[in-house]
Write a structure and sequence with these properties.
This protein is of the alpha+beta class. Strands 4, 5, 6, 7, 8, 9 and 10 form a seven-stranded mixed sheet that branches. The protein has a three-stranded antiparallel sheet with strand order 1-2-3, with no helix packed on it. A hairpin with a 4-residue loop joins β8 and β9. It starts with 12 loop residues before the first strand and ends with a strand.
């Protein structure tokens, strides 16, 4: 399903060359709307407590029945590091604080998806599934995970969480210039 009408004025869109790429653009005089594509940004949590990683079992598609790290999609007006704190609390009932960004997945497709994985410090709470998106939650060791239906991407992320070597990107809480409403991360 594609976009056929301007989101600004409602006029029909046509395919035009915009900076060397065919894109849908508004046909109305004076309207400069260009549809740049469809994108989504996902976030995932890597919460480790006593050398065990927080995992949830998906109760809905996609991935129903697979164990994954908690995560989800950002809301339009939500900072990514606030999104992941919310998702961990919603899906698993665990409070965790962002430490740093430790992995990025780039998945080009009809809706181009970028996924940021956050290392998070456990603060409090025993894992309790939300009963909607997830039907089980807990902290699991690598040995326990061998007997579980863990999603492939999650296996990679668990390796990053337990064996990662780098410092990752940390939130810049005191940038040299203030940018209200921005989430800034740096080495």
């Amino acid at each position: 399903m594609g976009i056929n009408f301007c989101l600004t004025c409602g006029a029909p869109l046509e395919v035009r060359d915009v900076d060397g790429t065919p894109r849908k653009a508004c046909t109305a005089d004076g309207c400069n709307f260009v549809h740049w594509g469809n994108y989504s940004v996902g976030v995932g949590a890597l919460v480790v407590r006593n050398e065990k990683v927080l995992l949830v079992r998906r109760a809905q598609e996609p991935g129903k029945g697979y164990w994954t790290n908690p995560g989800g999609y950002i809301e339009q007006h939500e900072l990514i590091h606030e999104t992941i704190k919310r998702e961990v609390m919603e899906e698993a009932g665990v409070e965790a604080e962002v430490r740093n960004i430790v992995a990025v997945r780039d998945h080009p497709r009809n809706i181009h998806n970028v996924y940021l994985a956050f290392a998070m410090d456990y603060v409090s709470g025993d894992p309790v599934p939300d009963g909607v998106e997830v039907d089980a939650a807990g902290f699991y060791s690598l040995q326990e995970m061998e007997l579980m239906n863990v999603a492939g991407f999650t296996k990679w992320l668990v390796d990053v969480a337990l064996h990662g070597q780098g410092e990752g990107l940390k939130e810049d809480k005191e940038p040299i210039v203030q940018f209200d409403g921005y989430g800034l991360f740096r080495i």
